[in-house]
Input
Amino acid sequence: MPALSLPTFPTNADLLPEDMAEHLSHIKHVITDTDNTMVSHGRALCATDGTPSIELAQTLVDLRRAGVSVVPCTGRNRAMIREDVRLLGLSGWIGEMGGVLCLSEGSTSDWRYFTAEMPYDAASGKTPHDVIFETGVVDRLLKRWYDCLETYNDNNIGYQYREVTVALRGAVIEDEAQAMLDETGLPLYLADNGFVSRITGPTILPTFEDGKVEDVHTYHITPRGLDKGSATRRYIELMGWDPAEVMACGDSPADCAMAPHVGTFLLMRNGASNPKSQSALATAGNAFVSAADSTDGFCQAMRTLLALRR
Output
């Protein structure tokens, strides 16, 4: 499939047509994926190529001063995203592919589970993750793809610390895996959250000497109807925001699900060749591709927004 034909997000605000400048100048909120979108190589203080840089930190500071809120939307669990948010000086967040929503307004914050179509009884004493795991489907998947699939240990603390979704990484036949989920009787879905480029720590997956890997996906077993798109829509509703004033950013097919629920969507250039992303954005009229990969492209786009607000 040819590369996705999307307009490149402008890097010079002075050259924008009046109608586009007017539209982008009203963006007040940015909901963004983290890895390979806002952050590269798992480090906030580096550029896309891994060299030391304060550009992301400075950009986030300038956005905050300009009154533009930045909300990470990630597959990471609560412990990881809360620490990321604290260190980056942000507030609200969306974790576990949309399964945990933290709403923040001023000095107050509140969180809740979001399980979409999957019934969940909060009085059960179990998390939605527990409910999914007790079906036995995770063990079945790991047995079926015993040499190319593993549970994904968030920050090496263990997959069991997730609350809503189950995280896996490797490569599966997705239709077959989805059929196994359907057999549980629960409304579940296998979400592809993009490729892993490097693995540190123990793994059964084949790696190169520097930890790099090829064709390794990050998967999440999620309640059906739960994705970054439905979670973004729900988050915007709960916050009382105007969707036209929201921009979403991401690099994976899972991120593209946000596009229909916001005024502007930015696909990172490093994710533009993924056929699933191409399919998801084929009819989107609000999508752009970044001028550069991941962190560099994210910061360039944010600089354009800031220039338009002056």
User: Anything to note?
Assistant: The mean pLDDT is 91.
